[in-house]
Design goal:
single chain, about 160 residues, mainly beta, six-stranded antiparallel beta sheet, five-stranded mixed beta sheet, 2 helices, 11 strands
Length: about 160
């Protein structure tokens, strides 16, 4: 799960609702929308994951059969509403632990999360991971551990 820290962020962040998921995608997963192919794959290589063209999937939960928002996902071939993270520079966000590769206890305050890429982390497509690598143009700084989604984080989007 993923949400903006303020309601006004919806007005400030560019989004792309025209592409489809290539894997089952949770809200908060990193995607790279491609209007030419009509698809939103996860970052395929470290270079793509380090770029400024990083989006986060965040669809409205529009399935009445979903009783718990943590059970929601965007199925493969469904449209994704992807929000460009560079537009969220210095803005706050909240997200659940299930979109992070690392163990919850090992994610320290003031550490940075960066997008996983398919080449380096094939079992964690679309997720975030802890990294000290400063080559990433979009990162999320962990400001607080929360109970959002049972175990979650409050963070700030940092853009180079």
């Amino acid at each position: 799960m993923f949400k903006f820290g303020t309601i006004g962020a919806f007005k400030q962040v560019g989004n792309n609702p025209r592409t489809k998921a290539v894997i089952d995608t949770k809200n908060g997963y990193v995607v790279i929308p491609d209007d030419v192919t009509g698809l939103s794959p996860t970052p395929a290589t470290p270079t793509i994951a380090q770029s400024k063209d990083v989006y986060v999937a965040m669809n409205i939960i529009d399935k009445p059969e979903i009783r718990n928002s943590s059970d929601f996902y965007i199925a493969k071939d469904e449209h994704i509403r992807a929000f460009k993270l560079t537009d969220l520079a210095d803005k706050l966000c909240d997200f659940s632990y299930d979109i992070v590769k690392n163990d919850y206890a090992s994610v320290a305050l003031n550490s940075y999360l960066v997008p996983c890429d398919d080449a380096t982390d094939p079992d964690h497509k679309g997720k975030w991971k802890v990294s000290t690598d400063t080559d990433y143009n979009v990162r999320i700084q962990i400001l607080e551990k929360t109970t959002y989604g049972d175990k979650g984080f409050h963070g700030k989007v940092v853009v180079k």
